[in-house]
Amino acid sequence: MVSATKPISTYLLLLLSFSFIPSNSTDPTPSPWPLQFHSILFMNYSKGSLQMIDLWYDWPNGRNFNIIQNQLGKLLYDLEWNNGTSFFYTLDSNKECRSAQLEVGILRPNWLDGANYLGQKYVDGFLCNVWEKVDFVCKGSLQIIDLWYDWPNGRNFNIIQNQLGKLLYDLEWNNGTSFFYTLDSNKECRSAQLEVGILRPNWLDGANYLGQKYVDGFLCNVWEKVDFIWYYEDVLTKRPVHWVFYTGRAAHVMTFEVGAVLEDAKWQAPVYCFEKSGDQKNTELGSVVAGGSQENLVAGVLRGSMGL
Ligand SMILES: *[C@@H]1O[C@H](CO)[C@@H](O)[C@H](O)[C@H]1NC(C)=O
Ligand SMILES: *[C@@H]1O[C@H](CO)[C@@H](O)[C@H](O)[C@H]1NC(C)=O
Ligand SMILES: *[C@@H]1O[C@H](CO)[C@@H](O)[C@H](O)[C@H]1NC(C)=O
């Protein structure tokens, strides 16, 4: 009896250790994307809206095109260039267009490198290998953001300290004007005009409830908003604890002072934001700024694509 069971338990132990120790050498890796391909995607969003997307990925020419047919809705063109410029437009008589400048270009063919293998699962009738890829845009950079949200006065302020880097001011007005600037001797400033203002207090309306989870030691209710943000709120106090953008950039809320208002004088953008000449400084600041504000810009684009 003893001698018969021993090999079995050793075998079980081996199996167990194999299933618990992540083994990079044996895990399958996702195939890199072909450099050019066309694909038709059927999109079923969590809110229930359906889209067909005609995707033309074209890495050698540094461009990516999503032609989006909303169900019984508009035909939208989302054209992305590898220099970070995106155009989002219709070709109907309304002649709508918005553009955005992002820090990152289109997805690299090997964008799935380093993804975490989760195993196999049947999806849409196909047996699939499944990977998860988090933080594929941000590269581990840390920031402290001093956030002053002020809806009654139609303004929102992000004072951003990059780790061992610049102190950056990102001031947003509800009329769509944003100023990004430093207050050091370089006198850098860049302004942008977005079609959307600051987040509304009820911007999470219609979010998809995912259940409860412990995050940072707090028991949180978790919502997801159209595959764009995961939002964690403390069950007991209803304060936000944590959120994660779909890009992987994550925020941990360290203080939350309801009713605190920053004094008016601090909301005044410096005079060099209103001078027309400083174009040479804009490009340098652009790359610094995009790290912190990328989600804001993407949010604008996404809100546009949801609302159109
Ligand atoms: C879209 O997804 C929802 C939720 O997963 C599902 O109930 C619905 O049947 C899907 N619709 C289509 C057309 O696949
Ligand atoms: C990026 O490339 C596109 C297409 O060539 C061009 O229209 C756009 O102005 C470029 N953006 C920048 C910031 O150079
Ligand atoms: C928006 O409001 C800010 C602050 O009052 C102002 O500086 C900016 O010029 C306004 N932008 C537009 C487009 O009116």
UniProtKB/TrEMBL annotation:
InterPro entries registered for this protein in UniProt: At4g14100-like
Domain of life: Eukaryota
Endpoints of the signal sequence: 1-26
Keywords, ordered alphabetically: Signal
Protein name from the UniProt record: Uncharacterized protein
Source organism phylogeny: Eukaryota, Viridiplantae, Streptophyta, Embryophyta, Tracheophyta
